Automatic annotation (TrEMBL):
<dbReference type="Pfam" id="PF04434">
    <property type="entry name" value="SWIM"/>
</dbReference>
<feature type="region of interest" description="Disordered">
    <location>
        <begin position="169"/>
        <end position="191"/>
    </location>
</feature>
<feature type="domain" description="SWIM-type">
    <location>
        <begin position="98"/>
        <end position="117"/>
    </location>
</feature>
<dbReference type="InterPro" id="IPR007527">
    <property type="entry name" value="Znf_SWIM"/>
</dbReference>
<protein>
    <submittedName>
        <fullName>Uncharacterized protein LOC104212317</fullName>
    </submittedName>
</protein>
<dbReference type="GO" id="GO:0008270">
    <property type="term" value="F:zinc ion binding"/>
</dbReference>
């Protein structure tokens, strides 16, 4: 949730940035095609009720829930004691005070403790987005290659346009790989 997808894609395309635009776009297409193919393959070969990554997260949450005690308040409302701290869990509304279930839609350790005490299946409390069928449908999109340059339909007014090089000169020395930060970025406190 906290990683920036644009930064991840930029990091994966460092070597492709030096290419002409057509070749760059072809590299981007190949990268997304590889990612879609590998993710789709992994999802189709998953025989658990959740995708591999999410099943591992659920197992980790189960391990963390073993030290917690559950006290029922009503039929759907429970208090979970986790190392001296109390958390409230509502099974009916699927809300937990820690807030992780509302964000992840995957039973957090506190929810796991309640579900175990009620002998309920945690997979029923997981979002459909984590199930293999949904993951396969997500990556079912094909990434088609760009058409050959000979097949392009370029309007005449675009083909006749002359593109001149920039008016400034490139300074001597090795070109910088990093961008110059704006003043607002420099003024922000570092965390």
């Amino acid at each position: 949730m906290t990683s920036n997808i644009a930064e991840s894609i930029n990091a994966a395309l460092v070597s492709a940035r030096e290419l002409p635009i057509y070749d760059f776009l072809e590299e981007v297409r190949k990268m997304f095609g590889r990612w879609n193919c590998s993710n789709r393959k992994e999802a189709t070969q998953t025989y658990t009720t959740l995708g591999k990554k999410y099943q591992e997260m659920l197992t980790l949450n189960e391990e963390m829930s073993t030290r917690m005690t559950v006290v029922p308040l009503t039929e759907y409302l429970y208090t979970v004691n986790d190392g001296g701290r109390n958390y409230t869990a509502c099974l009916l509304e699927r809300k937990y005070v820690c807030g992780r279930f509302q964000v992840d839609e995957l039973p957090c350790p506190h929810a796991w403790a309640v579900l175990k005490s009620k002998f309920l299946m945690p997979e029923e409390y997981c979002s459909n987005y984590y199930k293999p069928n949904t993951i396969v449908m997500t990556y079912d999109l094909s990434v088609y290659p760009l058409p050959d340059r000979n097949d392009w339909n370029i309007p005449e007014h675009v083909a006749e346009e002359v593109v001149l090089p920039p008016k400034w000169k490139i300074p001597p020395g090795r070109p910088k790989k990093k961008r110059n930060k704006t003043l607002s970025e420099l003024m922000q406190p570092k965390n």
